[in-house]
């Protein structure tokens, strides 16, 4: 969404210093265009509360405004919308009952896990029900013989690996928030992480799901076995950002923990050399478990925050991790060292033990929060480019930043070309936040123009839905909408997310409703 | 190669199954995505897309085919970025031709279904895979973007040209294994992998279905990283016999290290005395009856069985022994042993419904890949539909409301 005023800007991007002031001035997002023009959802959602209490138990249904406000936002802290009702589901039947009541009353609902998403995918609908899944925390089965773990959606990502570890197995997807984020949220967002370069994303590790469809019907997609006959609806469900239904049970596969893991930290005097090293590693036929890059400004912030002891004077550092059989890792590790040296690495450190490895990762993993040490406020973006275009795109990001007079720290998954520009600004300066948002969108447009994507792992949510029309044509989006209509013809599941323009399912292709209030008029021309 | 004069009898080297019983209607071989779209816009009848026609028996016979649409004219590799390990290729490009081009840069598309001449679009539509799925996964794990022509001629893209991308619904997954029933895939974008420079195999004899399970588990639950773990098996009156092959592909040092370790593990298990394996060397050198290390995989490796009735079985991986035991004597085939997939040529008199009921205990399924013509009428190709079938029907109705595309070829007659 492109906001026109400072006030509405607060609802559109993630800054970490403005939450207090925003929450005190604007609790709800006004002017939301309802999908159904004739519906008075506010009254209906309120009337629904009594029926919800009867169905799931009064203790699980919140309507007190102070309690409701607790759930007004997710990890995109500045978009705040207070729901009419919150249901704290404790079992699958609660979810089914809540969804059925919503469907019957035509009231929209939003599912929420741990609420760590960065694109506002779990932001409530003002006149709707928020279904919170974090109490669904049972690990249903740990099955090392089949390399499967079956969990409820509120189970924390890291718990899966903890359950599998005694059997020498691990759950591969490792988003940075893995100590708090839930599997249900991971499924909704198709969460990635530093190690998805080698191991793939959530979608590559989810084998099955029990899903409550937006009309309350319960279906089972996939399972323990691979290749269930029929369409791969599971593959389409993963990453659908809560718009196709709510997973109430998830079956994931686990992988064997590697025999050896080795990590190195390499300092460079130029971003081009660091990027060239990444390209040379890949060209050398090596598939590292992770390759992460930080630029000078990000290093400065990390040092200020966690004293990770990164090489002094580095303009860019790489954290490179290899895993696998010991012999293979050792030989390829030497090869990576030689490649880095040929690219003028001025310092290469090799982690000698788990503590040193943890310290190398600490600087990287704390980089987002650390930027708060060097700027009053910042805004995290998430875009992807073809890896070989890293040097030129980073140069262009620098030019865009200079032209805007804004500092940008770059922290990213270099192996996948997944950029996380951290756009620094002073929220006390009038218009600075808006300028930061504009720069973020310019960077996303640059990613698309370079052959990439507007999001690699944070999702579209409310934050970037206007950018979907930059990456996809109207026909592309119409086609995606067909899937939405098959799952949710009434448009009740997490409406207003992921896609730029709300539409009804009965519409003829090519005929679209007017742009939503937060839609960029310029994009409205093409969509 | 397909015979253009015989639309009903599209033939591949391995599968002569017609897509529709009797004679099909017209045949078209458009040369571009735009031509495919124009064909669908300018006609109203039923359309069955086909690539090289090597897997036409993998789906149920079409209930109607006014137009057989060959995608073999869509044969261009449109974009190859070796540095990014990404390739964009039209649906009619044969996998073998693509691999040849990729190999010049030391790269590969990590799909290895055995059907000779198979196209990318056909492999995607049939969700065909081979032994290396253990390491690299299947189509759904490697396809990063797709362009599709819908039944009404709409050309739509999803995914992109970067591996990491969560913008919008991933419709490539939906078309994978859909046999063209939701749209005609015209272009595909893939994640590539470096071609490993060295290989070695470890082969172990298998005496009994339980041993097949134990040997497989022993390797799968180790820190070894085989690219594939393939079983060749046959069911006799006295039980299951066969051999298990672990394929290692990596840098030479790793292959040299892992193959003997794998051989030792398998020899231990083969001896049935895991704790007494004092001299694994001795056990690995007993000749044909013992575990042995070799360079290239055996001739059967990755091939699918041929017979009057061939099935693909999928099941919880640890159920491999029980699945083998559920098959009647005379059955034979291969299995990607650690992932829970087997290919079985079974006696044509098999009670398919009973087999499917037995497999259900292990979340299993049995779908037909090939059947002699006299077996095909009345054959339940896909087996029972699950509780998501209503949803699948609604998806079909949204993408192909007039049921023009591959009618009847999918699960439940969709």
Automatic annotation (TrEMBL), chain A:
* FAD-binding PCMH-type domain ranges (all copies): 79-257
Q: Name one Pfam family in it.
A: FAD-oxidase_C
Which intervals carry biased composition (Basic and acidic residues)? Answer: 26-41
GO molecular function term, any single one:
oxidoreductase activity
Looking up InterPro entries in the UniProt record yields: FAD-bd_oxidored_4_C, FAD-bd_PCMH, FAD-bd_PCMH-like_sf, FAD-bd_PCMH_sub1, FAD-bd_PCMH_sub2, FAD-linked_Oxase-like_C, FAD-linked_OxidoTrans_Type4, Oxid_FAD_bind_N
Entry keyword set: FAD, Flavoprotein, Oxidoreductase
- The protein here is known as Glycolate oxidase
Q: Which cofactor does it need?
A: FAD
Segments carrying the region annotation (Disordered) are 18-43
Q: Does the keyword Oxidoreductase apply?
A: yes
From TrEMBL, chain B:
**What protein name is recorded for this chain?**
Glycolate oxidase FAD binding subunit
Q: Which InterPro entries match?
A: FAD-bd_PCMH, FAD-bd_PCMH-like_sf, FAD-bd_PCMH_sub2, FAD-linked_Oxase-like_C, Oxid_FAD_bind_N
FAD-binding PCMH-type domain location is 20-195
Q: Which domain of life is it from?
A: Bacteria
Q: Name one Pfam family in it.
A: FAD_binding_4
Provide the residue span(s) of the region labelled Disordered. Answer: 1-29
Keyword list (alphabetical) reads: FAD, Flavoprotein
Concerning SUPFAM superfamilies, the annotation shows: FAD-binding/transporter-associated domain-like (SSF56176), FAD-linked oxidases, C-terminal domain (SSF55103)
Query: What terms describe the molecular function in GO for this protein?
Result: catalytic activity; FAD binding
